[in-house]
Amino acid sequence: MTSKNGDHGSPQTSSTLKADPKPSAQRVPPPETPEAIQTRFRVIAAFWAVIIFLGFPIWWKTTSIYRAHLPIQEMADWADGKTCRPVFPLEIHVAAPTMQLPESQHLVRTTQHALDDLNEFAAHHLRLKLTNDTETSTAQGIDNTPITGSMMDDAPDTALTVRVVAQEGLATPRSELRADTTQLDIFYPPSQVPIPSSSNPPLSVFIAEELQRLYSEEKATIAYILSGGAAGRDSESISRRLRRSMKYADTYHLSFSLFTPGSAPSSWDIEAAVQEYLSPLLHAFGPISNFTIDTQVQLYATFSPMAPPPVYDETESAWTLKKEDLSAFINAAEWPLNPSIGNGPTLNFILYVPDPSQSPMVVKENRASSWIVPQWGGVFLLNPPLEQAGQSGSQTNPGHITQESLRPAFMTFSHQLLTLLGTPTTPASLPLRLQSLIRVRAATLLLSASSTMGSLARLTESLAAIPIPATVASSVSTTLAQLSSTCSHLREGRFGAALTSARIAETEAERSFFEKSMVGQVYFPDEHKVAVYLPLLGPIGVPLLVSLMKELKRLVAGWKARRRSTA
Amino acid sequence: MTVYSLFSFLLALAVTLWSSPVSASSDYHEQLFLQPLPQSSLLASFNFRGNTSQQSFDNQHFQYFPRALGQILQHAHTKELHLRFSTGRWDAESWGPRPWNGSKEGGTGVELWAWIDAADDEEAFAKWITLTQSLSGLFCASLNFVDSTRTTRPVVSFEPTGDHPKVDGLHLLHGTLPGEVVCTENLTPFLKLLPCKGKAGISTLFDGHKLFDAAWQSMSVDMRPICPSDGDCIVQIEQTVDMVLDIERSKRPRSNPIPRPVPNEQLLCDTSKPYNSHDTCYPLEKASGNAWSLQEVFGRTLNGVCPLADSDEQQSVCLRVPHERQVFHSEGAVEQKKADGFTRCFSLSSSQPFDLSIPEQAVQTEVALEEPVLHAERTIVGHGQERGGMRIIFGNPSKTTDVDFILFESLPWYLRPYIHTLQATITGPDGVPREVPASELVTGTFYRPAIDRERGTQLELALSVPAASTVTLTYDFEKAILRYNEYPPDANRGFNVAPAVIRILNAPDSAPIYIRSTSLLLPLPTPDFSMPYNVIILTSTVIALAFGTVFNILVRRVVSVDEAAALGAQSLKGRILGKLVAIRDRIKKKETKVE
User: Which residue ranges does UniProt annotate as crossing the membrane (chain B) (predicted)?
Assistant: First the structure.
């Protein structure tokens, strides 16, 4: 082979050999014929043609990964809040059965003016609307569930009905919020009927202030969420409340557990207690989320050896737990508190009956017997009256906990459940709080689904090696469609429908972001490809490249020579 | 079979307890049964049983039923569940028949079978996968590897033990993991399922170090619904742990676990054997039996009683030794001897720890062990990497009765049996083996052939072995070649083949007797795992060589040798050589000048 290596740069050979000054005895080979040069050129060109037109496309086809097209810009716009500015127009019906029509129209107008003056947060505003059929709307108030009500027609949800009634013997107007319906009763002295000429009647101001007060917490919460957690009025308390609450889910699993370090109590009237104390609340939550309930009894549940034991406090005559030690109260390693099977998060409610030797047990700082574990559940310390056990005189816990003694525990659990689900603390009416929760949840879901879209867009941009299956693309388009329908529902005041759309958007967004097949390729590094390709491409590629370069050099030289000869 | 058997006692006890579930609809019961076995072994059989009403089970109100397991079963629509974790081998020749007639034990590793409520096979399989995945997490076992290749649907080998209102919608699925190593991480979740959690009652004796040091152990979890003719249905969970401990081995302190030889003067030699010299000894088992106590064998004492156990069942510990044997027990417990002359039970005090101590004592009577109904042994025969054979030997020790049974084998797909090669050899009482056609012994066959990478072979044979005979069944198989990525990390160890399950049909009472053979190790042709890279390198080299040759022939110019020399001066190599020569000449010149 080496002897044949000599014919590099064949076109030049003839000319350079002639220029050789040394009269050599060596025989110089005859110059190559143009046919031979032509054949070599064709051979090399054929090889390269196969590589470029056959090999390369096949390699490209077989090793490329499928990346479905994603509307990156649109996704990023959602995440940046450019596409949608959520607004919350609340429709409030005003009924004034004791007033003349012009009077009541004037009242509504002036109250709306007063409200608009008071409102400082534009995205959340109240719209008053005069109705006459007061009785039917209030009657609907109880079981007119927000979602079903709005699904049937395109009219906005009625957030509140204000009923303005004249009452004798009053000096100033008085308001009364019914705890079980969405109705606010305003009683006013008949003397204060607004005169059409007055621009700012005291009754309107009163109603406006009442309404403003009713929605102040919700307004602050929504402002906090929309601003992305920026500091504002009450932002500290709102962020604490939001941090505690669970992420929104379709279904929550409620798990009630009785833990005790000894062998008693070993049974409780849990079925009756759940039925009696909890079912009404869960029923009211029906439009927002579903719930499953399971219960268990766990005996011999001791504290973790790491946890600081309770200390006996002489002055309180009780065993006390320090507030900072409460996080170590739950022995996560040994207590069987695994999440329930199925979609949705689990909320754990623990009823802890302390050992007779450590009873009663309270929290040291405030003598409280319950606390919330943020985003996880709640704990209640139940100290039942001890029983004298037989002849030995030692005290034991009762073997069975009755429904009546579970009452305080379940009242606390209901309260903890509301807090964990993120329900606002005001106003006093539960339906109003739930409606408020719907709006807060819709806003949260809208923002979180939008930001997931943004993250997905950034992820697919930054990792060029991950595949994007078609399912992700379809999920993304569903999410975007649902997001815009959420936005329009919000704008038109249909909050129930907005929540439904936002729920779908959030699920689809999560599904597209956590698509399993997208992560597979990330762990296949380029070094592996080199290791696989190099043994083949090295020995084949080098001669091909060298010959290509030589051929090009010859062509360039020939072209130059031709130009020189023409010049 | 006139000899009164421990195991039929256990079974009778179980039957009586099961048959009266109405009186205790949501009760809890636990019992420990101890029996010394020959060769200084001790059988400890723990049983825990909890009931809950079907209604509170459906509403997820769990008291004695563990919540985690209950939710899994509901989620997977599982109506009856049997889960087994086993290690070791039951030595039937020395220890007699199996505890619970084998109904509470599984093959080596993990075995799971369940009746799942589903509309069709596909749905049942999807739920089965849900079930195995969830159980895998709950019990820290690799049950998630029970895929379609390890799942079978036995037809005649298993019967539901619970009462199911509608049977036609139930699908039986069976899966085994013969290679699973059962250890303490499986015991901890097992204990968590118990209401008393190993903190009170007989479960306080469990110590992973002792339990998994046993010569044989089996943990089981059974769930089934029981519907008495009068009254509401209940859901029952039964957990058992059976183990055979070597007393000598267990008594060794953990700080000093190395066995020491018995001093010469304490050696008991079998004098009936001929000896050539005085320095040899055939050791003899002690006639007086070993001295042991719970503290020594289990490493701890029994801590009171689980207060949930029903009060009339206080006799939670029973011991089976002859009545003439001395047994010391700790204060507070009350001993009660049963009329059969061998069993005594103890009522424990709820507050004091309990210990049993049995001294060394020569006794006249021995607890007689019943002969097992059937001996079974299964081995892989043959040699080479391509073919092999399976040999299953059944021995019927009875002089009078035939044994009818069902042999259930689930073989992995990479073991391809040839059922037409099924051959039977029968050795009668005369000891002369003679070949018979397999159809003479096999009364029924259910065979579901394997599909590569999709499902394994399922073979169920109904067989009959005549009295005092030994039957040897053989069939050939072929070993498949696996794909490169189908080999486990320890491929050269071999592949586990699940034990065969034998269900004996003509048991004296209705309760079936189960025997499981040992699991087998199948060596498969195993490649060298650097092979893919070698192949890449080798083929690349060959292709590069061929390509280079062809390419050079096509492209290069052929000249004669002296012409090549002339051309060589022009090439890069030639120029470099020329430069080198020039440098050398210059250096040489300098040297000559210096001289």
Answer: 533-555
